[in-house]
Design goal:
Mean pLDDT: 96
Structural class: mainly beta
Strand order of the largest sheet: 2-7-10-13-16-19-22-25-29-28
Radius of gyration: 20 Å
Number of strands: 38
Number of domains: 2
Number of helices: 0
Helix content: under 10%
Length: 359
C-alpha cells in the first residue's frame, strides 16, 4: 500500500498528500482484523479525505473498507472531496461499508483499470465500486472516466443490525468503458431508496471480447439485481448511443419498483480540462504496458497499434510501430517517450461540466 491507516483509527483527516508508484492500492483504510475479518466494534467514523493526488498505482486508487465476508467496520460520515485519483491499475475508487452522512463529491477519478488485460484477477477492471450499508449516502459532482468491465458496481449490502439506505448519485460525469455502465447489486427493501439524477454517460462502446470472447454487448446502460425491491429512480439523466436505459425501460417509464422520468438519449459532450497534458486521443488508447493478456483465454501476447499510449514505470509512451513484448524504456525504436501529463484536471470553465470535479 502507498498509505495504510488502521489499528482502530477513527475521527481523522488525510489532506494534501501525493501517493504514487504503489505496488497495490494508493490509500487503504481498514480497521483491525480479528479472525480474518474486520472488527465491527471499531468503526472508522468521521473520516475526511481531501485534496490528495493519487496516481500511477498498480491496483486501486482508494481501497476503503473490508471486501470479504461480514462482519466489517462501518464508515459513518465518510467525506471524500477535491481529490485526483489518476491512472490506476484496477478500480479508481473502491469503498465499502458506507454509513449515514457519507458524501463523495467534487473529485476526478480518471483513467481507471489500466491493467484490464493483465490484472491479478477477474472483476477488477471497473472504475467505481461502492457499497452502502445504512443511512444517507451522496455521490455528486464527480468526474469518473476509464474502465473495461462494469464501470460502476454499486452494492446495497446491509449487515445484521443495519438500518435502511438512502443513496443518491447526482450531477456526475461518467465516461469510457468497454462494457456495462452500471450494475446495482445486493438487495433492498423499502424504506431504502436509490436515485440516479442528472448524470451524464458517454463512451459506452462495447469492446470487451478481447478479455472474454463470449461476452456480448449488454444493450443497456444499467443492470439491476432482482433482489432489489426498494424504490429505484432514474431522473433527468442523459446518455448517448443506442442502448436502452435498462432492461424493460428504453428511456422513461416504469417497471416494478423502478421508475424513469425526464431522461434524454442524445449527444453528450466530452469533458475538457484546464491542462491535462494528454495527447488528444480516446481514453481507450491508454493502458498500462504489459506483455501478456493474462486474463484472456490462452493468454495471448498484447499487441500495440501505432499511436497507442501506455504507462510503464509511471512514464508515458506512445507506440511508433506495431509491436508486442517490447518494454518501452528499452526499445526507443518502438516507443516515443512523452512528457508526463500535467494532470491539471480542473474542468475547463467553458465546459458544460464546469461545476464538477476538483476546484
Amino acid at each position: 500500500m502507498g498509505l495504510a491507516v488502521g489499528g482502530g483509527a477513527t475521527d481523522f483527516e488525510l489532506e494534501y498528500l501525493e501517493v504514487t508508484r504503489s505496488g497495490f492500492a494508493g490509500i487503504r483504510l481498514l480497521n483491525s482484523m480479528s479472525g480474518g475479518v474486520a472488527d465491527p466494534s471499531q468503526p472508522m467514523a468521521n473520516v475526511s479525505v481531501h485534496d490528495t493526488y493519487v496516481h500511477d498505482v498498480d491496483s486501486e486508487g482508494y481501497y476503503f473498507g473490508w471486501t470479504g465476508d461480514p462482519p466489517s467496520n462501518l464508515f459513518p460520515n465518510l467525506q471524500i472531496y477535491n481529490n485526483r485519483v489518476v491512472r490506476t491499475g484496477s478500480e479508481s475508487l473502491q469503498i465499502q461499508d458506507l454509513g449515514d452522512g457519507s458524501r463523495i463529491h467534487h473529485n476526478v477519478f480518471a483513467y481507471g483499470a489500466l491493467h484490464w488485460l493483465d490484472n491479478f484477477g477477474q472483476y477488477q477492471d471497473g472504475c467505481l465500486q461502492i457499497l452502502s450499508r445504512q443511512g444517507k449516502t451522496e455521490f455528486d459532482h464527480n468526474v469518473a472516466m476509464g474502465g473495461a468491465g462494469t464501470f460502476l458496481s454499486f452494492f446495497s449490502s446491509p449487515e445484521s443490525g443495519d438500518g435502511p439506505r438512502s443513496v443518491t448519485f447526482h450531477d456526475n460525469y461518467f465516461a469510457d468503458t468497454r462494457s456495462l455502465g452500471g450494475y446495482l447489486n445486493g438487495s433492498s427493501e423499502a424504506p431504502s431508496s436509490f436515485t440516479f439524477g442528472h448524470n451524464f454517460f458517454r463512451g459506452l462502446d462495447f469492446s470487451y471480447t478481447t478479455v472474454d470472447p463470449t461476452a456480448t454487448d449488454p444493450g443497456v446502460v444499467f443492470g439491476v439485481n432482482a433482489a432489489h425491491h426498494a424504490p429505484i429512480s432514474f431522473e433527468g439523466n442523459t446518455f448517448e448511443g443506442s442502448r436502452q436505459l435498462l432492461s424493460g425501460i428504453d428511456l422513461n417509464g416504469s417497471k416494478g419498483n423502478i421508475s424513469a422520468t425526464d431522461n434524454v438519449n442524445g449527444p453528450v459532450a466530452a469533458i475538457a480540462y484546464q491542462a491535462s497534458g494528454y495527447p488528444d486521443v480516446p481514453t481507450s488508447r491508454l493502458s498500462a504496458w504489459g506483455a501478456t493478456a493474462k486474463l484472456a483465454p490462452n493468454m495471448p501476447a498484447i499487441t500495440y497499434a501505432i499511436g497507442d499510449l501506455v504507462m510503464s514505470d509511471a512514464e508515458l509512451y506512445r507506440a511508433k510501430i506495431v509491436n508486442s513484448g517490447l518494454l518501452p524504456a528499452e526499445n526507443p525504436e518502438a516507443w516515443e517517450k512523452l512528457p508526463l501529463p500535467a494532470d491539471d484536471l480542473r474542468v475547463d470553465d467553458d465546459s458544460p461540466y464546469a461545476a464538477m470535479g476538483v476546484r
